[in-house]
Amino acid sequence: MCALTAFQGEHGAYSEQAIFEHFGRGVETLPCESFDDVFNAVVEGKCDNGFIPVENSVAGSIHRNYDLLLQHPLVVVGEHATRVSHCLIGLPEAKLSDICKVISHPQALAQCERYLRSLKGVRTEPVYDTAGSVKLIQQAGDPCVAAIASRWAAELYHMNILVESIEDNPANYTRFQIIAREAQPAGENAKTSIVFALKNEAGALFRAMSVFALRNIDLTKIESRPLVGKPWEYFFYIDFVGAQSDPNVQHALANLEEFSNFLRVLGSYPRYGG
């Protein structure tokens, strides 16, 4: 039986594209309205796993998903990075010269700002989703309105790609994490994600970083989020190279736990190789 993977957005979203890149086209997908719905679908057993974006190389971290990782009893079992290439998409009969309005997710509009400014007299309108914007223009049937989304979305909804690769920065990648109810083998080339909170005292963060530096553990990501109810205190999310089963990592985590108020391993998983 094929695995069922939940994602936020409509069919044709970049998240769904990333799912197919990672698992292959044989996987079944479950579109969800919000990131909260993705997490709930996994927790409630409506799907096997969820695919959530955690950072974009242009726009930065998706903070909501870091908060949701902490709030749910799920584990990170994998990661994937996908190249984001935006297309200007219209109806099959649409012409670029006729376009007077472009719709898409606010982030997609922002990432194509330079190109959109070159289209004199064209208005932009934010909507809830990139693939959803293609679905909207299909339903409206107005050849003067275009959408920004992926090539996959254009093909899925049988729309016309007017211009490809309109993003301002070609080095545009989104990294996803795969969440599930139970841990899976991480393999030899592994990464681990953790979240912890520290006592509010001088040198606390320095000591926390030192437990990894002294053991030559490579940190690949650090993110802080407010500790709700305790102003100016924070949760720290860290990704590093190595598996939780590695004795060197176990010693580092035991050392970190000695002066942390809170420590949770979110998961060890195969490191994405690109």
What is the highest CATH level, the class of the largest domain?
Answer: Alpha Beta
Shape: elongated
Q: How many distinct domains? A: 3
The radius of gyration is 21 Å
Low-confidence stretches: none
Number of beta-strand segments: 15
CATH architecture of the largest domain: 3-Layer(aba) Sandwich
Helix/strand order: EHEHEEHEEEHHEHEHEEEHEEHE
What does this structure look like?
By secondary structure, this protein is an alpha/beta fold. It has three domains: 4-83 and 172-180, D-Maltodextrin-Binding Protein, domain 2, CATH 3.40.190; 87-163, Periplasmic binding protein-like II (D-Maltodextrin-Binding Protein, domain 2); 190-270, ACT domain (Alpha-Beta Plaits, 2-Layer Sandwich), CATH 3.30.70. The protein is 29% helix and 34% strand. It is built from nine helices and 15 strands. It has helices at 14-23, 35-43, 63-71, 106-111, 113-118, 130-140, 151-156, 204-213, 247-258, and strands at 4-8, 28-32, 49-56, 60-61, 75-83, 87-90, 101-104, 123-126, 145-149, 160-163, 173-180, 190-198, 219-226, 234-241, 260-270. Strand 3 and strand 4 (60-61) form a beta hairpin. The chain starts with a strand and ends with a strand. 40% of the residues are buried. The model has no long low-confidence stretch (mean pLDDT 95).
